[in-house]
């Protein structure tokens, strides 16, 4: 699968969404700790850590995709978003609950230099008669074994190796995108499980409240039964007198 400019722009849009979410989270966290003098909860810390991990992983995948042949178009844009993320991490450098250094990303993409134009030496040979050449090859048993002349004999091998290397990079990039998609699915599943866990705890609390009410009702019924029993005995004694 070939990585297109459209795919890279989509990854940039997703990464900007993550960084915007990180900026909002940092502002809320700063207000919580500095203004209200409160301590972030464990869930808040885990959400922040998961967001930082997703941003770092997205930067790694985007770096790999851009390096497969799109450095000229996106190197500057990638450097800008890396600088913005670095500034956001600087805000977390003094955070006592999150180790910001673990999620640093400093790699940037350099634009490839323009290749030098070299003039190849042209070699002219004496024109041969094609029929005579084919007949000579058949008589000598060398037909199909003669390779065309090249100024650079390693050029063909180099082109073959480059095509194989490009194919491997594309396969690796596709695999990384699949892993990123799986991570997003796992994040969605984690969020769903967390919501269900919260609902389960609420249901458990309600059941505890109902259990207390049922125990009170049971004690009330027992007290009422005892009173009715005593009243029945008194009524029986009254009748026998």
Automatic annotation (TrEMBL):
Chain intervals with Polar residues compositional bias: 136-145
Annotated ranges, domain T-SNARE coiled-coil homology: 176-238
Region (Disordered): 133-161
Domain of life: Eukaryota
InterPro entries: T_SNARE_dom
Membrane-spanning segments: none
Entry protein name: t-SNARE coiled-coil homology domain-containing protein
């Amino acid at each position: 699968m070939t990585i297109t400019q459209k795919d890279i722009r989509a990854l940039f849009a997703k990464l900007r969404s993550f960084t915007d979410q990180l900026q909002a989270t940092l502002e809320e966290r700063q207000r919580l700790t500095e203004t209200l003098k409160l301590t972030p909860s464990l869930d808040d810390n885990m959400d922040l850590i998961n967001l930082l991990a997703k941003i770092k992983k997205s930067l790694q995948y985007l770096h790999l995709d851009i390096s497969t042949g799109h450095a000229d178009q996106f190197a500057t844009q990638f450097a800008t978003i890396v600088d913005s993320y670095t500034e956001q991490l600087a805000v977390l450098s003094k955070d006592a609950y999150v180790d910001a250094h673990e999620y640093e990303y400093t790699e940037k993409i350099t634009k490839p230099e323009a290749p030098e134009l070299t003039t190849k030496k042209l070699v002219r040979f004496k024109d041969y008669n094609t029929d005579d050449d084919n007949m000579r090859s058949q008589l000598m048993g060398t037909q199909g074994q003669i390779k065309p002349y090249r100024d650079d004999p390693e050029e063909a091998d180099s082109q073959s190796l480059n095509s194989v290397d490009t194919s491997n990079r594309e396969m690796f990039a596709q695999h990384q995108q699949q892993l990123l998609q799986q991570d997003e699915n796992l994040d969605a599943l984690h969020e769903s499980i967390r919501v269900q866990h919260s609902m389960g705890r609420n249901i458990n609390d309600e059941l505890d409240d109902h259990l207390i009410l049922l125990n009170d009702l049971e004690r009330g019924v027992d007290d009422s039964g005892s009173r009715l029993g005593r009243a029945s005995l008194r009524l029986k004694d009254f009748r026998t007198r």
